[in-house]
Amino acid sequence: MARWGGVMGHHGASGAGGRDAMIWKRALKSWFVRMPFRPQIKFFYLYMLCRGFLDGKPGWGYCRMQAVYEAMIEVKRASHGAHKGHKAPVW
Fold this sequence. Notes:
Helix content is 70%, strand content 0%. By secondary structure, it is mainly alpha-helical.
């Protein structure tokens, strides 16, 4: 218990990472959003590095759905970028 108090006293209530982990996560997210081939990278990361293949068919499906979700985000961002300078018609 004394060790726990020492760790919490040194790192604060937010844990070992705290604010630094939050800043790091935001930086990675902003970097990942701008990467090409994001759906394929996400699939590879989840299926190979996170070992989704160990789950069999459900793991394949989950990794595939996450990749499709990333592809939909890309389409949405591209559509917003194309219409950025245009005003919506007033009916």
